[in-house]
Write a structure and sequence with these properties.
- The chain has about 1400 residues and is an alpha/beta fold.
- It is about 50% helix and about 10% strand.
- It contains 45 helices and 24 strands.
- Strand 15 and strand 16 form a beta hairpin.
- The longest helix has about 45 residues.
- The chain is globular and about 110 Å long.
Length: about 1400
């Protein structure tokens, strides 16, 4: 085939090469010296069309010239050079030099010439996005920046600000994260910040963009200055990161995206929010389209992003999408943290090339990298090399290698070595045995020499000449630049009016262009939120089920109320009870949603200054309104007709008011949820705030307590229940006379609706519209207050750990870690694996007829571009369950064999799977503690504890985790170890037990080059001992390919096999296809380039054809071998079979370890720990504030009924809140350990969790009993007190058990909270306390609830022997409900007063709920 038809058919470049021999002899001699990449951008090497006039006519003329190569060129444009060839038209990114800007028209005035130098140019050969005129240029300068660690405090957190202790290292010096860092990056340059994991790269980036959270800047500063190329020198002003807010695009490590938008929609909304208001919608769409093309997202452009409950794009595609959200804004400064992590080698290089081209157009690009391929080295203009927060090198890229040779002539990369990898290797401490001391001395020398001589060395000298000099060429003698594929000059993206528009906008003298205004922000956010919510089918289903189920339960509890005093009493209770009953679920779910998703995205975008608070509030309210309105209306209709509420007269008026007050109260409750979440993003704290407020709002509503104390009585005006209760009561009772057949005497008074209203202190003459207006005002007030708080108070973002916990240095564990596990060699075969995802008639093929063999004793790498199905294949091999999303499923065909046998029971003990995500670690444990606990749990019981700990230390050192061994792991809200260190920790945990088959999903992603190399060497060593190692790899460096990989499975996008063979066969296979491996090229990069489709411009057709050829060729090759394999299959037997190994630790071994791990993790999270202890006493204190000391007057009976109901009913909810704060983290690590090693049983896990929670539950119950039983003046004795505390403990434990049951179903805690709240609310209604008219069949079900027994224990102990003081008149007129406690029990219909029996039954039911929780978790474990 013709080499000219495919940019990769003949290598134009070499990776890790010492020379570049171009085979295009017509343009370049084969013996020519390697070109410096700067020469590719030299002034005369390609045509640069520069605008010199601002007028629209001239701009249009320029655009016409760009789109028509044959058109006559405007007179003021530089003429094409006829003497130069186009061989150097590869880089695609020229620097505009002043000599290029000289117009051919000699009559041009000096003013016009100067104007021409300041205006952007448009390039005919570049894509639309890169050829758009650049934004205002800015230069970055970092000067002696030192950033410390957060200060730690002794004592309670609230006293921390007064007793701060500066953090110190082992030598007593102030501890810092980075120290004395200086760097510069001018506009038009790209700065790479590199270094080992934990070197402070991300911290420096956060400082550049002004997002250090609680990290203090000890000294130094960061400043931005308008580039002299874009503005007069006299107008240059130093700007801080804050003042650069609209000109910086920042891409974080974590991807924060809306799950239910498509890729195109996500970018479109980002462009609408980030681009200047002057750019039209059509132009924005073109920018979005080109961004999709550049980032290789065309195939998934209309695919949902997806999340935990809905499958969407791959992890690599999410990373590219996050970068695209910043790129569409065309920022002056682009900052990206590990932008290529998770991307395959081809996509990573294409992305860096795009960033480099953008930088050449006067943008300032700063990014961090972990494992860059050598072709990326020439793309960078400056390099900042860090080692544990200290500068090793900071200066021009061409002076990096000479500097190290200046320090020591032996410090230079060898032939064929990637200079980027070498720089990271030489500046990183290698913690492997025997190398740590030497590497520490080397790094110490480099740091000292840089401080002494480095800044002077990189300063430009007179004899340096221009960049790209002989010194630069000499530096790059170890590699050849990998050029981008040449673009067909006949295929150009027409710019026309859109480019004309952007050119004219960005050429204005006023650089301070504003983004869209508030009205436009509101429209964009409203459109985005509407699409996201309307596609959230799980949310819609949850709200619908909530309305139907709760409405039906409450409807049955108050079904067809009779028109007699008991029915009237129940209707009066329903008038208030239906509100907290329904809205509490919405309240808890909303708090969780805001704390864990919505406000996290808001904080992220607010940091980028994309919009004001007001537009976000409007969009939030408008999208909540239809969802809440429909669910509340459905609930109201069910209740109204099932209960048989007022229908004979004023029906339309009454039902309209009922629906309206339900909707409005729902909106107010969501406003309170937003208000509390605005104050604190921690769910445990925010939920405590709203729960406390909820109690006050219920008690001041005017039913359970008619005359609250004066100091809380004012709260009725901020209680939506106060207004809602009055609306319903007036609509149901005003001017209504109940039948009350057979009722005579004083009791007949209750049959008059107006008398009922007077009894609850509600005036029948008040117009309920006033209360509706008050609710509308409350909606406005709650959202407005939340908006004010969001505007002035910023509690969001990740905080850094303010204390490092140490569990010892590890030096005591010097016992030999002899492994006593006898493993057999296991060969894994994959035969005809097909994987399809289906939903409602839609089908997507993920893997197509995959055949592969993974032999024991070797490392097999699964490679391919993003979306090729690598992770899916690994999960099938490891036997992991995959989540297809709601109403979707996976169809799997084919077989996975172990030594020729299908999967067998217990095979998971032989297979360890290192997942791609690292979020299953307990956040408050240190790295060393995490590994030690894993070793004790996973290693055989025949090994002593000392040897297990020694094994943990061995793996700790093997993976380079020594320096961070005593640092906390961290989590979403607590910054701990770096992402690379967390990746190594995940791998270390699985390597502890030395499994027979080790399956690793992207073991090197997020790691620096040296650590990635060490990890692969460790995997190679594991394989050499007879283990089977299977790993997916995105960007393997050449030494990893040569030393760490034995076999390769290469997948193309769509899950099709391109190669599946030993590594040694790759070269001949490529040659047979016409793509021989070039000399001195990283084969991994080469084959990834071959199998990747380049969707930019006209390259797609050629590259798709090449990939199809590879797939078809391998399919034919595989088909020829089918008969041979089939003939030999019958004779193949498992070598020795497989001896099942049960890796599960016994309860005796596992329980103490899990107890210690859970307790330590809980204790180190003070907000969670104290919240679990004080929530129950806090509830009791609130009740005491409301009821004060119980009286013995005529209202004593009614007060005690209300008091007991209010202190008993919420306790199960409190148990749920306690559970939600802790259980998810413990559940995640348990399920992970079950999937990966089956280290211990569900019984052990549930028992350990119960033991850890028990002291806090008992302590909380005892404290609450002191407050309520003694403090409120209830009848008490030793027996009564402890029975009171026991009843409270039982309810708390029941809530925890229910939380465990529902929390095991799905990782979406928001959905779980809604389900749990619904279930407990149902139990409350079935308890027989809220409604005295409960149907008999529901009354029977009530005996299965702990609420019924707890209420009876407390109420009977309080009532027996109680005497109230009532006058005869108070008794006659019904003001005194009862005179004795026994009469109160008779009124409730309770005839059995045996409290001891109830305590026994209550204990049994409480234990039964915990056993049921164990059964649910056990069933979930069986499905993993």
């Amino acid at each position: 085939m013709s080499s000219s038809s495919d940019p990769l058919a003949v290598p134009a470049v070499g990776d890790d090469a010492t020379a570049n021999q171009s085979q295009e002899s017509t343009t370049t001699s084969a013996s020519a010296a390697p070109q410096d990449h700067r020469q590719l951008r030299a002034p005369g090497n390609r045509e640069s069309l520069v605008e010199t006039v601002i007028s629209q006519n001239d701009l249009q003329e320029n655009i016409n010239a760009l789109n028509d190569a044959s058109a006559p060129r405007p007179a003021h444009y530089p003429q094409r050079s006829q003497s130069k060839t186009r061989t150097d038209d590869k880089d695609g990114a020229d620097d505009v030099e002043l000599d290029d800007l000289k117009p051919s028209n000699a009559s041009q005035s000096p003013k016009e010439a100067l104007q021409a130098t300041l205006l952007p140019h448009i390039d005919v050969d570049d894509n639309y996005m890169t050829s758009l005129p650049p934004p205002p240029p800015f230069d970055l300068e970092i000067e002696d920046l030192t950033i410390g660690v957060p200060t730690s405090s002794g004592g309670l957190p609230i006293l921390g600000k007064f007793f701060n202790k500066p953090a110190e290292d082992a030598d007593g010096q102030p501890r810092t994260i980075v120290r004395n860092v200086s760097a510069t990056c001018a506009s038009g340059e790209m700065l790479a910040i590199i270094g080992g994991s934990g070197s402070g790269k991300t911290t420096v980036l956060n400082a550049i963009v002004g997002r250090l959270a609680n990290l203090p800047i000890e000294s130094g500063e960061i400043s931005f200055m308008p580039s002299h190329r874009g503005i007069n020198l006299s107008e240059r002003k130093t700007l801080s990161a804050r003042k650069m807010k609209d000109k910086i695009g920042f891409v974080k490590q974590q991807d924060t995206l809306l799950e239910h938008l498509t890729v195109r929609e996500t970018l479109s909304y980002a462009a609408a929010l980030r681009l200047p208001r002057e750019i039209s919608a059509q132009t924005r769409e073109l920018i979005v389209t080109q961004t999709i093309e550049e980032l290789g997202l065309r195939d998934v452009a209309d695919t949902i992003v997806g999340g935990a409950l809905r499958k969407g794009i791959s992890g690599g595609e999410r990373r590219r999408l996050s970068i695209g959200c910043a790129l569409v804004a065309m920022p002056s400064v682009l900052v990206a943290d590990e932008s290529t992590t998770g991307l395959d080698s081809f996509t990573a290089y294409a992305l860096l090339l795009t960033l480099s081209q953008l930088a050449r157009r006067n943008r300032t690009v700063i990014l961090t990298l972990h494992q860059p391929r050598s072709a990326t080295f020439p793309l960078f203009d400056r390099i900042l090399l860090l080692s544990k927060g200290r500068v090793v090198f900071s200066g021009p890229r061409e002076k990096a290698l000479p500097w190290f040779q200046h320090v020591n002539e032996d410090f230079k990369p060898g032939d064929g070595v990637n200079p980027m990898d070498w720089l990271i290797d030489v500046s990183t401490v290698d913690t492997r045995e025997g190398k740590e001391e030497e590497s520490r001395e080397r790094v110490g020398l480099l740091v000292r020499r840089w401080e002494e001589e480095g800044p002077a060395f990189v300063q430009p000298r007179e004899d340096d000449g221009e960049r790209g000099s002989e010194e630069d060429e000499g530096d790059e003698g170890t590699l050849a630049v990998l050029s981008p594929p040449r673009r067909d000059r006949t295929s150009r993206t027409p710019l026309n009016a859109s480019a004309l528009e952007v050119a004219s906008i960005l050429s204005q003298a006023n650089w301070d262009m504003q983004r869209i205004g508030i009205l436009r922000q509101t429209a964009v956010l409203l459109s985005r939120a509407t699409k996201d919510v309307s596609r959230n089918y799980g949310l819609m289903l949850a709200f619908t089920l909530q309305s139907i189920i709760l409405g039906a339960i409450l409807g049955f509890a108050f079904f067809r109320l009779p028109e007699d005093p008991s029915g009237i009493q129940s209707l009066k209770t329903l008038s208030l009870q239906h509100l907290p009953y329904f809205t509490y679920l919405t309240l808890i779910y909303s708090v969780y949603r805001y704390c864990n998703t919505d406000l996290i995205l808001f904080d992220r975008e607010r940091e980028d200054h994309l919009y004001a608070v007001f537009p976000w509030l409007v969009s939030e309210f408008c999208t909540n309104l239809p969802v809440l309105g429909i669910s509340a209306s459905l609930f109201a209709l069910l209740i109204y007709f099932m209960v048989g509420m007022r229908s004979a007269d004023h029906f339309a008026w009454a039902i309209g008011l009922f629906i309206a007050e339900n909707v409005l109260v729902q909106l107010v409750i969501v406003g309170f949820a937003l208000l509390s979440s605005s104050l604190n993003r921690v769910y445990a704290t925010a939920s405590t705030i709203v729960n406390s407020l909820q109690i006050f709002m219920i008690m001041t509503a005017g039913l359970f307590l008619l005359r609250p104390p004066v100091y809380i009585n004012w709260m009725r005006f901020i209680s939506p229940y106060y207004y809602g209760f009055r609306i319903v009561a007036i609509s149901q009772f005003r001017d209504r006379t109940f039948a009350c057949d057979g009722i005579e005497g004083l009791a007949r008074n209750q049959c008059d609706g107006n008398q009922v209203l007077n009894g609850v202190l509600v005036s029948p003459t008040i117009n309920p519209s006033y209360y509706l207006a008050a609710l509308c005002g409350m909606v406005l007030v709650t959202y407005s207050l939340a908006g004010i708080i969001l505007h002035v108070y910023h509690p969001g973002g990740v905080k850094h750990a303010n204390q490092l916990f140490s569990s010892g240095s590890g030096k005591e564990a010097m016992v030999a870690a002899d492994m006593e596990i006898v493993r057999q060699r296991i060969d894994v075969d994959v035969r005809h694996i097909c994987l399809k995802w289906t939903r409602r008639g839609t089908e997507k093929t993920i893997l197509h007829n995959i055949n592969a063999r993974f032999p024991a004793g070797e490392v097999t790498a699964i490679m391919g571009p993003s979306g090729a199905g690598k992770s899916s294949l690994l999960q099938l091999v490891a036997g992991r369950q995959m989540n297809a999303g709601p109403m979707a499923r996976f169809q799997v065909e084919g077989a996975v064999l172990f030594n020729g046998r299908p999967r067998f029971r217990g095979f998971r003990a032989l297979v360890a799977f290192v997942e791609q995500e690292d979020n299953h670690h307990l956040p408050a444990l240190t790295v060393r503690e995490t590994l030690r606990y894993a070793a004790i749990l996973r290693l055989p019981k025949t090994m002593s504890r000392k040897r297990k700990i020694a094994r943990a230390e061995e793996v700790l050192q093997m993976l380079g985790l020594t320096d961070c061994a005593d640092n906390v792991v961290g989590g979403e809200l607590l910054k701990g170890i770096s992402g690379g260190e967390k990746r190594r920790l995940s791998l270390a945990v699985e390597m502890i037990s030395d499994p027979a088959v080790l399956v690793v999903d992207e073991p090197t992603s997020g790691l620096d080059a040296l650590t990635a190399h060490n990890v692969m060497l460790a995997l190679k060593a594991i394989a050499a001992s007879g283990r089977t190692v299977i790993a997916s790899i995105h960007q393997p460096r050449s030494d990893i390919w040569h030393a760490g990989i034995d076999n390769v499975v290469l997948l193309a996008k769509g899950g099709r096999t391109a190669f599946s063979c030993p590594k040694s066969e790759i070269g001949p296979l490529c040659a047979s296809l016409g793509y021989p491996l070039p000399p001195m090229v990283n084969p991994a990069d080469w084959i990834l380039d071959l199998v990747s489709v380049d969707s930019r411009g006209d390259r797609e057709k050629v590259t798709r054809k090449r990939v199809s050829l590879m797939i078809d060729n391998w399919a034919e090759r595989e088909a020829k071998n089918v008969e041979d394999k089939a003939a030999n299959r019958d004779s193949v037997q498992a070598p020795e079979g497989i001896v099942d190994y049960d890796g599960k630790a016994s309860v005796i071994v596992a329980l103490p370890v899990i107890l210690e791990r859970m307790a330590r993790n809980l204790w180190r999270q003070p907000p969670v720990f104290w919240m679990r202890l004080y929530q129950t006493p806090l509830l009791a204190c609130i009740m005491l504030m409301i009821y004060q000391r119980l009286k013995y007057g005529p209202t004593g009976g009614q007060d005690r009924m209300g008091f007991v109901l209010e202190i008993i009913s919420p306790l199960a909810f409190v148990g749920v809140l306690n559970n939600v704060a802790v259980f998810p983290a413990d559940r995640d690590i348990f399920f992970h350990e079950v999937r990966t090693s089956g280290a211990y049983s569900a019984s052990t896990f549930v028992l350990a969790f119960t033991i850890v929670e028990l002291p806090l539950e008992i302590g909380g119950a005892l404290l609450a009993a002191i407050v309520t039983n003694i403090g409120a003046g209830m009848q008490t004795s030793a027996r009564i007190f402890f029975q009171f505390a026991f009843a409270q403990w039982a309810l708390l434990s029941t809530g925890e058990s229910i939380g465990m049951m529902f929390g095991s179903f799905t990782r979406s805690m928001g959905f779980n909270v809604s389900l749990v709240s619904t279930f407990i609310t149902i139990l409350v209604q079935l308890s027989g306390v809220v409604s005295v008219s409960l149907p008999k069949w529901l009354g029977i079900l009530a005996w299965s609830t702990t609420l019924k027994y707890s209420t009876r224990i407390v109420m009977i102990n309080e009532a027996v022997g109680l005497r109230l003081h009532c006058t005869e008149d108070e008794v006659m007129y019904g003001q005194c409900l009862v005179q004795t406690g026994e009469q109160l029990l008779e009124l409730l219909g309770w005839k059995d007063w045996n409290v001891s029996k109830y305590c026994g039954i209550l204990f049994a039911i409480t234990v039964g709920y915990r056993i049921l929780a164990w059964a649910v978790i056990r069933a979930k474990v069986a499905s993993l």
